[in-house]
Design a protein that fits this description.
Elements: H1 2-17, H2 19-55, E1 61-68, E2 72-75, E3 81-84, H3 99-108, E4 113-129, E5 132-141, H4 145-148, E6 153-156, H5 161-165, E7 170-174, H6 175-182, H7 186-189, E8 193-198, E9 201-211, H8 219-224, E10 230-235, H9 236-243, E11 250-255, H10 261-271, H11 273-276, E12 282-288, H12 289-311, H13 313-332, H14 334-342, H15 347-385, H16 393-419, H17 423-428
Parallel strand pairs: 5-10, 7-9
Antiparallel strand pairs: 1-11, 1-12, 2-3, 4-5, 4-8, 4-11, 6-9, 8-9
Helix pairs in contact: 1-15, 2-12, 2-13, 2-15, 2-16, 13-15, 13-16, 15-16
Length: 430
């Protein structure tokens, strides 16, 4: 153990004597380690951010939608197989779900369902109040939508059963609309009748509720929310009346807390099979938010790892630099090596001395790289996501151990070359 620490002391003395050369030697290790750590920090932060954002929508949500069938393989009576191409370019009204289908589904699985949210896009338009105006995307929603979409009402109320059944012209707007049109006065906004232009038609709606608009965190979310356009919700029946259609393309189910959302998604898919068994163009697909979150986390992890491996190539370049400088160092210290061998130092002692020196170079470079990588990754995560950084402790320790392994691997050849020197030839070296 004393010999090991003595070798460490000699290595540090050698680095101190050649500071610039040592720094340039470490540069490849520093760049490699800092790149890997920074990428892992940003990747983990992005993965945590996306998982949190998706989970906030409800991990017990099950999404049900129309999907176009893929090409199917058919076999003729003669035994020949061929792929029949599906040339369906779009989904027609006949392919969509009906309210009766969804009501039967809700009755069948009533014990598993907390709420069903149906949304129907009416169109984009503008709300006018005097000389003021603001853009809105008008969407018809059912009573269960506020639960499935986790909307937070700031003031007012949701639609009543009478308003929904009677297709009344009532609406729920965001607090951004209230800020722009009513100076932030919720009381003044509630009960007000606003004129809304949707495409080329004009409608009057009474505001009954105000929800909190949340754009999310991060630079991308901030960029997407730079405009004033937000969603405006009206009763689903009102949207059907305006669109002259009550067909449904997709809906969301909020499963009860004790229900497995993945298993329930499969049950949902099976329920609609009889309705679409003879439809050669489309079928009903469903998936849970929990499975989507898991898939996104896996994809982000794979992408981060792949990029880190590419960045890790710099470590190999740094390792080659370490080997090169160790060969130079051995050449410069040939007489020293010869003297030690003449005094009885075994080959293993010479070999250990130079391996330890290579490991010390890589370890110091690794520590500097870790500090730069964590700092740079945290800064990038803060600027891009506006959320706390999430550096990987495992990647930090792994990178440090890997840098030391690089030192052993690339330092062994020069160290072994030094250990095998002929002491007489070494002493005669000038």
């Amino acid at each position: 153990m004393n010999l090991f620490f003595e070798n460490v002391r000699l290595a540090l003395f050698s680095l101190k004597a050649n500071k610039m050369r040592a720094l340039l030697t470490m540069l490849g290790i520093i760049i490699g380690i800092s790149s890997v750590i920074a990428i892992m920090t940003v990747g983990n932060s992005l993965s945590s951010y996306m998982t949190g954002e998706l989970s906030s929508l409800g991990t017990n949500n099950v999404y049900v939608s129309i999907a176009i069938r893929e090409n199917e393989e058919e076999t003729t009576e003669e035994g020949y197989s061929f792929v029949e191409e599906n040339n369906q370019a779009h989904i027609t009204a006949d392919d969509l779900m009906t309210r009766e289908m969804i009501e039967n589904y809700a009755d069948t699985y009533a014990d598993n369902i907390t709420a069903i949210g149906i949304q129907k896009n009416v169109g984009s338009g503008q709300i006018f109040e005097g000389t003021k105006s603001i853009g809105v995307d008008v969407k018809g929603v059912t009573l269960g939508y506020m639960l499935t979409d986790n909307k937070d009402l700031k003031a007012g109320r949701f639609f009543t059963g009478r308003e929904t059944e009677g297709a009344k012209r009532v609406c729920i707007v965001s607090n951004k609309v209230v800020d722009k049109m009513f100076g932030g006065d919720d009381e003044a906004a509630l009960g007000s009748i606003v004129q809304t232009q949707i495409e080329t038609s004009f409608y009057d709606f009474t505001i009954v509720g105000i929800y909190n608009f949340e754009a999310g965190a991060g630079a991308l979310a901030s960029y997407m929310s730079m405009g004033n356009t937000t969603d405006m919700y009206i009763p689903f029946s009102t949207a059907c009346e305006m669109n002259h259609s009550d067909y449904v393309a997709y809906f969301t189910v909020l499963a009860k807390p004790d229900v497995d959302p993945d298993a329930f998604a499969d049950l949902t898919k099976q329920f609609f099979v009889p309705y679409y068994r003879n439809n050669r163009n489309v079928y009903i697909d469903s998936y849970s938010m929990a499975s989507y979150v898991e898939m996104m986390s896996s994809m982000m992890g794979t992408l981060t790892t792949a990029i880190s491996v590419i960045a890790g190539i710099a470590l190999l370049v740094g390792g080659i630099g370490v080997m090169n400088i160790m060969l130079v160092s051995i050449t410069e210290r040939t007489r020293e090596i010869g003297t030690r061998k003449a005094l009885g130092a075994p080959n293993s002692s010479i070999r250990l001395q130079f391996i330890v020196e290579a490991v010390v170079i890589c370890m110091i470079g690794g520590i500097i790289g870790i500090l730069i990588g964590v700092g740079g990754g945290s800064l990038a995560a803060g600027l891009l996501l506006k959320s706390p950084a999430n550096p990987s402790i495992a990647s930090i320790f792994g990178s440090l151990l890997f840098s030391m392994a690089i030192g052993v691997f690339f330092g062994y050849y020069p160290a072994n070359k030094a250990a095998k020197m002929d002491p007489i030839e070494a002493l005669r070296y000038e």
